[in-house]
Design a protein that fits this description.
Elements lengths: L2 H14 L4 H30 L5 H16 L2 H11 L1 H18 L6 H29 L3 H31 L2 H22 L23 H13 L1 H17 L6 H20 L6 H24 L5 H32 L6 H27 L4 H23 L7
Length: 410
């Protein structure tokens, strides 16, 4: 490579990576952490099923219980961030999570697996909430949405890299290989804690003597937005559960085409999420983006439905077209939801409010797989059309809730 090409590459990398110190630190920590997430997600079920000897149903049960328990911690974690500041609490949570991940190596039965998974779910929930609280402290208006968009792009990149790296362990398929991956995941969280500690200290916004109160849980408008955001988040379940099942059971596309579809999604988020977040500073703008997302995702549902019963080549083309429309809805919908989540919150209690807002995602993740499976596999094409209608109505209701008016041609 010539010196000119090296210089050009260096400039592109510098432009892609944030220059503001706090944002650069957050991005670095997020990349390392999500790389670790990608490692474990890829190998966890296989390792504990085939090498530890747990039944697949018990592994799934452990993950489900851990997910449910984690929901109970997001609001208290947000309150802790408001009262003590998010940085040091986040450092502790990442260190603890790293130690818990390392303990997976010694798990040999279901009871310890369940306990460790629950504790990891709790610390992971705390970490996510504190990340949101930190963004709320260091940004304002559209800068918060931009920061969140950038970190989401970094998250997708980190998970993708971790998944690819974990593929080597899958190829080797040995206990030593899987233990190495789990150890690397634990190390990633320790490194994340070290990087996170380099963030500027953000002071508490709630006095230590102030009585604890679930302020955010009493805000009916915010709870309504949280519920609607949770419903819209079902489109992520379509990606993780619906598309693989639909492609394999109902279309003539090859199984491996699922990977191609999801790769298109990941690449689009990495490349375009920050750009899609522009113009989301005002909460009304966020509500408009959210409503547009409902239309995009609904159109994608129609296209997914049309991929059944056609030739292999046509099915593959329709599925890619559906994902391109779907990811457009994902990009603008995510930006809109962040704008709403930050914009409707009380500044003094941003941590607690962000903890509440994350409950919508958690509930969608808990109930979504069963609902999506029942609709698209149980009902076929009509299930896709019902889903499309749900997304359109959800987008319009959010706009009405946030702005007090129906969408105009603006």
């Amino acid at each position: 490579m010539s010196n000119e090409n090296i210089s050009r590459t260096s400039k592109l990398m510098k432009a892609a990576w944030p220059q503001e110190p706090a944002m650069r630190t957050l991005a670095s920590a997020t990349l390392i952490q999500t790389f670790g997430n990608g490692l474990l997600t890829t190998v966890e079920i296989i390792y504990f099923t085939f090498f530890v000897g747990l039944a697949p149903s018990k592994v799934a049960l452990g993950l489900s219980i851990a997910g449910g328990m984690s929901l109970l911690c997001s609001v208290p974690a947000g309150h802790i961030a408001d009262r003590f500041g998010p940085r040091d609490i986040a450092v502790i949570s990442y260190l603890v999570e790293g130690a818990l991940l390392a303990s997976f190596i010694f798990v040999r039965s279901f009871a310890p697996y369940l306990i460790v998974n629950i504790l990891i779910g709790v610390t992971s929930s705390i970490g996510r909430t504190l990340q949101q609280a930190t963004i709320a402290r260091f940004g304002i208006g559209e800068s918060r949405v931009t920061m969140r968009a950038y970190l989401r792009a970094v998250t997708n990149l980190g998970i993708a890299l971790g998944t690819v790296f974990a593929g080597f362990a899958l190829a080797i398929n040995s206990r030593a290989g899987y233990i190495t991956i789990i150890s690397l995941d634990a190390l990633a969280f320790i490194i994340t804690a070290v990087i996170w500690h380099k963030l500027p200290y953000a002071p508490a916004t709630v006095e230590r003597g102030e009585p604890f109160a679930f302020v955010a849980l009493k805000d009916r408008k915010y709870l309504g937005a949280t519920l609607l955001n949770g419903i819209m988040s079902l489109h992520f379940i379509i990606q993780s559960v619906g598309i693989p099942l639909w492609v394999v059971k109902e279309t003539n596309a090859p199984r491996w085409w699922v990977s191609v579809i999801l790769f298109v999604n990941t690449l689009a988020v990495v490349l375009f999420q920050v750009r899609a977040s522009r113009g989301s500073g005002e909460v009304r703008d966020g509500a408009r983006k959210f409503s547009h997302a409902g239309i995009y995702v609904a159109l994608a549902c129609v296209l997914y439905a049309l991929s059944a019963g056609v030739s292999t080549l046509l099915a593959c083309a329709i599925l890619i077209a559906a994902m391109l429309v779907h990811v457009m809805g994902e990009l603008v919908g995510s930006a809109g939801s962040w704008s709403i989540g930050f914009g409707l919150a009380d500044e003094k209690h941003q941590g607690q409010y962000q903890g509440v807002f994350s409950l919508g995602w958690g509930l969608g993740g808990a109930f979504g797989p069963s609902l999506i499976t029942a609709l698209i596999i149980g009902m076929g094409k009509s299930g896709w059309f019902i889903l499309g209608g749900i997304f359109i109505v959800t987008g319009f209701l959010m706009h009405r809730l946030v702005t007090g008016s129906w969408i105009t041609s603006q």
